[in-house]
């Protein structure tokens, strides 16, 4: 593997790490609760910024999937045997783990095989596993989406992406400002298919060597404007209604997500990082899937620490320690599991 290929992999791992940190933040009080129940401006800004950014967590993961899988030449059979089977096994095993954990914590009254099967089918055992069901759904139609992506010209992909952003974000802003709802059937693509195609386009079709710095500066500026725009929409929504609306956090998410993905890709393509840091990033990135599966378990164990810090320090510190601690603990658990042959192949 060439040095340039390693750098490309590193950029993907950085996006993975950022996305999983945002996922963990999304599962803490820092998301929504802090900014909707505080008079402290610093806490408000911290929580609202994190809440807006963490709306990009799953979209970033889907963009990575599009970047890595939409150009692979795999038959339907290969997709089922290599990918769908693996995710299915993981879903069953870790759902069983959390079901047993719930029984031990008295969240469930007693172990029942029928209740487990029902919970597995409807996705109620572990709420955060909704992404696994979504991912399985995307894998089922991956061969068709691959043909669509590969056959499209760059200009056609840009047209699709621009049209979806214009309708998704534009309609959201229009509805907010006027109070007139735009029929969602007008949106061209399913939002998750949009992120798959966007990841493929930005990750595979753009030659980063040809992207000049001014374009990256513009992209960064657009990200800042989206963040400020989201601040304004959330604040104005509260001024109008007297309550905070979580739905307003998503208004600029498509643009913000694509900007984050593009900027990180370009930075780690253009600039090298020290070898030791690169190894840490690569190791952590390789454990992100396991961290996603185990972060709930880690948060349960660190909850007493979070509550102690909340009572004896201040919310921002408590939440930050909770997020970072959960990330590290889930990472350690993943490293241990990967030493077991079965889980090494799965994770």
Mean pLDDT: 92
- Please identify the oligomeric state: single chain
Total E-strand runs: 0
Largest sheet: none
Q: Structural class of the secondary structure composition?
A: mainly alpha
What is the CA-atom radius of gyration, in angstroms?
A: 21 Å
Q: State the end-to-end CA separation.
A: 22 Å
Number of DSSP helical runs: 16
Q: Roughly how much helix do the residues carry, as a percent range?
A: over 70%
Roughly what fraction of the amino acids lie in strands? under 5%
Point out poorly predicted stretches. 1-8
Principal-axes shape call: globular
Domain Acyltransferase: 13-333
Pfam families: Acyl_transf_3 (PF01757)
Transmembrane segments: 14-36, 42-64, 84-101, 128-145, 157-180, 186-203, 215-239, 251-268, 280-302, 314-333
Family: Belongs to the acyltransferase 3 family.
Report what the structure shows.
The protein has 347 residues and is mainly α. The protein is built from 16 helices and no strands. The protein has helices spanning 3-26, 33-36, 41-53, 57-69, 76-104, 113-122, 130-140, 142-151, 154-178, 191-205, 213-241, 253-270, 275-286, 288-312, 315-337, 341-346. Helix 1 (3-26) packs antiparallel against helix 12 and helix 4 (57-69) packs across helix 12. The protein is globular and about 55 Å long.
